[in-house]
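User: I'm putting together notes for a lab meeting next week and I want to include a structural view of one of the chains we've been expressing. I don't have a solved structure, so I'd like a prediction I can at least talk through. The sequence is below, exactly as it appears in our construct file.
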Amino acid sequence: MKKALAILMVLALVASAVTAEVTIGAWGRGIFLPLYDNATDTTTDTGPSWGGWGGDTSRIGYTINGVSDNVGFQIDANVDGGAPGLGDQQKIWIKPMDMITVSIGNIFDDTLRGNAAFGSFNWYRALGNGDGEDITFSRIGINRTTEGFEVAVKPNDAIYAAVYFYDLDKNLTENLFSNMQAAFGYKIDGVGQIKAQVYTKATYEAGTKEKDDMQTTLEVAFNYVGVENLFAEVGFAMATNDDLPTTISFNGITGAAESWKKIALYVNYKMDALTLHLSNINIMGDVGDGTDAVYKIIAGVDYSMDGGIGISGDVTYTGVTVDDVDPVITFFAGVTKGFSNGVIGAGVQVKNNGEDTLYGVPVRMEYWF
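Assistant: Thanks for the context. Below is the predicted structure for the 369-residue chain, given as structure tokens.
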């Protein structure tokens, strides 16, 4: 009997070892500008795509994942500029049953997120397009502050739903639903996906966790895949509480917008080696200077050649419906050489804000493992 139990224990340990593992992955991107005219000086600069003048150092990131059938963890970390730090996520997840995943920690859930990352968004955004993600549908965790808790349900391939709570550290229980996000997506086979969500964000009395007010934002989106090689997604968002203006920063147009609403579109179409991209973002709201709308159009192209060579470019135009405010125009063109685990490339970027013409020559290096 003892021998049989021992054999069973060994078999259980072996089975556990087969289905559980800890892996290390990595992603990073660095941009070097040997020439950057910022309208004040001609300088050099380094950083990730999102750094901007005087911003961050290059992203040197890695991820440690623990995965089993029902339990796992994720640690995103980085050593940007030689300083150890944390990345996007550090979480524990558990699947008490196949269709339910419960997570706690610093969580982003991008299952339903709108993604229009192309062209200069993947290069030096301070001289190009800084709007490539969340434009049609925000990620789950968009407003997170301190540690969060998520319950996600996927009963089949068509349905995905999640409820996410954040700002949980020593907050009042009565504020739980004042800092939350609830999202739902439904796929129609051969047609596309319908998505909807609501998220809240509380404001507090100074120095306390006594709720002063709360902003509620509604979003809906639909993506279409019914035509071969075509992807299109349109999204609408609005804030419901005009007593809490939504802060916007949109290609030099900055302010707290009352009656905030957004309509956004992303389309791409593939033709063999050629991919065409088009994005359009329209924000309506009063930012206190008579601005009724800010609108942005981004058109881009990617072309793949033999030997891992890629050519890409985009043009953006941002304007406002108010007199005497100049539009912002950017231009980008670049070439890359791809490898199995990374890419290197160089390009030219130009930005005109109506007063100054800024330009840079970015060299991009990127890895993934």
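A couple of points you could mention at the meeting. The first helix runs from residue 2 to 19. The first strand starts at residue 21 and ends at 37.

User: Perfect, that's what I needed.
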